[in-house]
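Section 3.1: Structural characterization of target chains.
Under the original work plan, the team committed to producing a structural model for every single-chain target entering the pipeline before any wet-lab resources were allocated. The record below documents one such target. The sequence was received from the expression subgroup and is listed exactly as submitted; it comprises 537 residues.
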Amino acid sequence: MKNLNFLRCIALVSFAAPVWAQLPATVAVKTPTRVGVTGTAIVTLKDAIEKVLANDQTLVIARIDHGESLLNLTGAKGAFDPRAGFTGGRTRAVTPVGSLFGGSADGKLTTETYQVDPYVSGLFPELGGSYKIDFSSVRQSTDSEFAFLNPQYTTGINLNLTQPLWRGLHYDDNRYHVEVARKNIDLSVEQLRQHLIETVTQTVQSYWELEFSLRNLEVQTQAVQLAEQQDASNRRQVEQGLLAPSDVIQTQTQIATFEQNMLTAQQTVTAAENALKVLMLADRHDPLWNMAITTEALSDDKSAPMLLDEAVRIALDARPELKQNMIALALNQLDVRRAHEQTKPQLDANATLSTVGLAGLETAAASSSALSAFLPAGTTISPALLGGYGQSLSDVTSGHFTTATLGVTMQLPIRNRTAEAQSAVAISETKRLEAMKKQVELAIEQDVRNALQGVSTAVARLDAAASARHYAEEQYASEQRQFQAGTSTVFLVLQRQTDLIAARTREARARADLGEANANLDRATARTLDARKIAVR
């Protein structure tokens, strides 16, 4: 080492003066202004997630789909809403009469009828039956000479019931549509959850990428500053005759190299920042586009990850992909049930209950004794039939004139190949969905294992990177002390300096990788929304 110092002194004496005059001038390296950036804004991770969820148009569409699924359920239930109807009209009929007993002397008979028939009908949601109740009201007048009541008022209440006894008793198309609508609501919720999980995970990872880019830019800027400090020290020692002028050339090369790295790091910051802004902002006119984003200080989550079996169990219980597959299976079972129902014979019970009323004003024909010979009971009209519209209503509600009918209708298809084919297709679809379920479960198992390993590796890498950075700092400081003592060279100092900057960069990268690995594990186990306290609405 004494010989080395001796040779350096000879070189300095021989070459320092003429070469020193040719040394490059000192130029301070400045970070260039970024394009389109006029200010700075602090954005926390929570703020970033809120902005992304507020402006994500895909999420808006998913929420609209969920709202439509709720409306579809309401619409499916509408099949069981009662329906009110009304028919009415006036009829005037003039018919020719060619008989002595036609009731008209001039060869024609005129009848005028006013009819009103409101009704209510609907379906029973429990057993698949249907009902219809209607109230008929008729006023009829005629010029027939044989009419005993003119005008006469006819009223009636009719109740019709139809109840399936076989096909459609436990299940039918209307109940199928209601169940499908309910499952589609669950499906839309899981699709919304899946999109939220993916979007939040992407936002967290983008935020960590920006965090790394900013820290890396700081490291590269510090590298330039260290190189400039070393350059200034070397120049002073050259002036004092302690170093060769070539040592200044080495530091200038180092400064130029670090400057390139700093500029590359600045470009990386811009790219990461714009990637996050694309997720956060609604349009290109948002003022945040012109702001440099400053991230919050994020803590390192080095807590021990959950056990593999527990993580897989949580993922299988909560992953929206698997839940969507299970909902698809449930929908398929509805198809199977519906198709099987269609293979049954149609057997329905029918019941009808009617009550009528009749009243009118007695005519001269009714009191004519000329007709007595043709009528066994004479021409006396029952007092219950004499009166106006009110009397007819009284008759219809008295229950004196009722008709009850009970019957069964049956329809038995000879082959029913359509229903049988639909049932076979539904059963085949069940097998396909069950195979897909196994595929999804395998993919989840793989995803959780990879995510757990990623977190474990990231924690170990961060610890190793922190140790490497610590030792690189000690090595650099030691090399500086040796250099000041004359037992080292500029080359070794700059090499330690390069190693220190690389160690700091790797630590920043490992820290960001750990944050992204934790976000990925939350995604793999479907804990993202709970961890970020996001409710699905």
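The first helix runs from residue 2 to 20.
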